[in-house]
Amino acid sequence: MPIQFGIFDHIEMSGDQGVEALYESRIAYLKRAEAAGFYGFHLAEHHGHRLSASPSASVFLAALARETTTLKLIPTVVCLPLHHPVRVFEDMAMLDVLSHGRLELGLGKGITKFEHLQFGHDPEEASARAREISAMLLEAWETGIISSADSDFYDFMEMKLPFEPVQHPYPPLWTAGNVEVAGRGGHNFVTTGPVTAAMRARYDELRAASREEPGHQNPHVKDPLIGQTQTVVIAPTEAEAKKILDRAWSYYIESITRARGTVPPHLQTELPVMDNPVAQAVLERDPLESGMAVAGTVEQVRDYYVEQARLGHANYFVLMTPVGDMTPEEGNRTLDAFAEHVIPAVREAVDE
Prior knowledge:
By secondary structure, the protein is of the alpha/beta class. It has helices at residues 19-35, 57-65, 85-98, 113-118, 126-143, 179-185, 197-210, 238-258, 277-284, 287-290, 298-311, 328-351, and strands at 4-9, 40-43, 72-75, 78-79, 105-108, 145-146, 159-160, 173-176, 188-192, 226-234, 293-296, 316-319.
């Protein structure tokens, strides 16, 4: 598969823009991305804070499905413990049909403790619940019947879906952030920041081994996408691009910090103390120095991605744009410049 490009979004609330205008501007933005040849749209799932104005990803993606024709719709990730297994199966199967088979599935447990508490279960159970629901979902997609047999957490009468999803055995699977899980599952993979040589080698090693095991996942995906996600800002000058990034990144970091821990934002009186020292260290790093963001003129951004493509570690470049309190105008300018100048240069460089 040739190098592909995608969009990752939380759909943050910011400024005075109402949620109706936010939805409309995002759908218009994603239609621009589709017209420019972007492969997929990744939508995060969060609940109860300004980081996400789209807590029901399936609803937003269903609306987007009716406004687009080629863009892959990729919830990244469906936070499985926050959904009843029957409901997530029904919702995703409907979305597969409504999109004419453009659904791809990012599956995971979710990282926000208070969200699990809001849904009435112990965050410490999240990994086990996610494994159970994932197995139920994939079996149900193949058989049309979802069952709680042998489950430690769920007890329901088996349910048969009264229609056929489009894709078989199931939509392509994605893992975000964890190369070990992605490689062992043979999943498409996306991470924050550049894909390193060591990361790609580990993924390839694990995937090759998993393909020899009975019951390996994603058997229908022959050329997995290995993606790096970065906030991108393109402006007429490097100084202007960095100024926009500094402002938008500060807003984003406060949003994502308030989304961590066990206390929901509307009950917080100050920024919570991060309970994950690795995540804390990441958030405290400079986004440009760490590779979590790329900002500059179109020529600078073009040269950066050409170099990344020639390294060959990633074959999928995902823009987290707009982010924070970036305006629609700032996001559109970056998207249009990226589509017109960066994408052709990257593909030409790889074809040389």
